[in-house]
Amino acid sequence: MATYCYSQINVIEYSSPFKSLEIISYPSKRLSFLIKRIIDFCGALLALILLFPVFVFIIILIKSNSKGPVFFKQKRVGYKGAIFTFLKFRTMYPDCDDKIHREYVVKLINGNIKETNLGKNRPLFKLTCDHRVTRVGKFLRSWSLDELPQLINVLKGEMSLVGPRPAIPYEVENYSAWHLQRLDTMPGITGLWQVKGRSRTTFDEMVRLDIQYIKKWSLLLDFKILIRTLPAVFSREGAL
């Protein structure tokens, strides 16, 4: 088990869909968090059932375009440093070196990448002109379809439908102390940062939006973010 120096909290192992309820430290909001978890579980299950034909279509596209697994699996950092296996549809060629992305993330967090160089309508954590990305992968990324397998993470209780973007371990290693506040809640598929335009923000601005979401969290706020997610996807200015 891995541990991050975050209030001396050890990594949490998830063993059931409702395990996350045991780590809530706000008694006055326990009912709201319970409702949130029920909505997450039921919403993810319903979405997986309804989107099953889409999953099959995407799997066929990926297998016909390049060799390798259908799913991309990566360790991510969740609530209070909990490590879990994050799922996406594979958009890159197999066995790609992540060194270039590691270097990019360090520069991004340290503010060494100008906002003007981030690229129009491009996700903050994705490189421009990345030759590791397949032709099908570019299409999936442009419509955020590669993110759909995260519904499985939600079903397992490792993520929420709404919350901060789940961090990569080597990203967290470069966090300043105040950045760690974004680990105060479950990571999500979509969130405040995503719907406000992920391509127009710096890393610090993203973290501030995450902290704002955590401090002002309510079921109504989650509902508003979910409602704004689809328009953000279609405009390609935010979303997942």
Note down, in words, how this protein is organized.
The model is unreliable at 7-26 and 116-121 (pLDDT under 50). The chain is globular. It has one domain (27-235). The chain contains nine helices and four strands; from the N terminus they run ααββαααβαβααα. The strands form two sheets. A two-stranded antiparallel ribbon has the order 1-2. Strands 3-4 form a two-stranded parallel ribbon. By secondary structure, the protein is mainly alpha-helical. It starts with 29 loop residues before the first helix and ends in a 5-residue tail after the last helix. Helix 6 links the parallel strand 3 (160-162) and strand 4 (188-190).
In short:
The chain has 240 residues and is mostly helical.
- Gyration radius from CA atoms, angstroms: 17 Å
Low-pLDDT residue spans:
7-26, 116-121
Number of helices: 9
> Shape from CA axes?
globular
Structural class: mainly alpha
Please tell me the total number of domains. Answer: 1
- Return the string of H and E elements: HHEEHHHEHEHHH
β-strand amount: 5-15%
Query: What is the arithmetic mean of pLDDT?
Result: 83
Write a concise keyword list for the protein shown above:
240 residues, mainly alpha, two-stranded antiparallel sheet, two-stranded parallel sheet, 9 helices, 4 strands, 41% helix, globular
Q: What is the fold's blueprint, element by element?
A:
Elements: H1 30-50, H2 52-65, E1 71-77, E2 83-89, H3 99-109, H4 135-142, H5 150-155, E3 160-162, H6 169-172, E4 188-190, H7 192-195, H8 203-215, H9 219-235
Parallel strand pairs: 3-4
Antiparallel strand pairs: 1-2
Helix pairs in contact: 2-4
